[in-house]
Design goal:
The protein is about 40% helix and about 20% strand. The chain has about 270 residues and is an alpha/beta fold. It has one domain: 3-Layer(aba) Sandwich (Rossmann fold), CATH 3.40.50. It is globular.
Amino acid sequence: MLIALESFVDAGNVRASVAETLRDQLDFQIVADFDMDLLIDHRSHRPILTINDGVMTNLEWPSIQLLHAIDQLGNHVLLLDGPEPDLVWHQFINEVMALATKFAARSIIGIGSFPGPVPHTRPTEVATTTTDSSLARPVAYLPDELEVPSSIHAAIEWSAQDYGIPALGLWAPVPQYAGVQPYPSAAAALLRRISELTDITVDLSELDEAGERAVRRIDAAVAANPQHKQIVDALEKHIESMEASRADDLPSGDDLAAELQRFLDGQE
């Protein structure tokens, strides 16, 4: 089950890009619809009204849905999509976990992004959060200990341990100076990590091309401003120093996927 709910932070429009890519490539069907009058404050998630020449032609209400699809290799995919609930989080989490159990979800993966102290000149390095230390994957740009406001993704992942379902949060950093614009490279990095962990097949060619175009635009903007170049150079040095201070034996994506499979096998 992939958790792709809107959150209070979505740097680079990454969550939306991941969800859109999956919906475009897989034939999803709705398997559960949630009661939005119970879950959200419509003043913070207002319906979208379409007006043509003064005539109201459509009113689209926000929705949270659990979608199901089967990829070309026969992998079953559950996608939880929509806005993050404003209210009754405990009840919502219980309902999500009941659905995960009903559909025999073998893992739960939340996705997100955040503005990070990283330069656009480097590949996106996805951070992992989990309740199982064997599945954790430290990254150089984050400190060892953090206290941050939780998203609904993390709350679901925390609850999953009570159900014996392995859960991961995958977080893509977006350069702080680029976070207000779409950053496709981070979305592609998240989908690659999801594929490594689950074998879900996704064509990333369009995202990769869009990511290259975005990087070229940032390169041009940085080249035109010496102060911006200094910032990028400083971030490069910061990452290099952080990498040097960490052990060289961080687990690879393949190692993480293998550990997840061992965990799954142990649940059977």
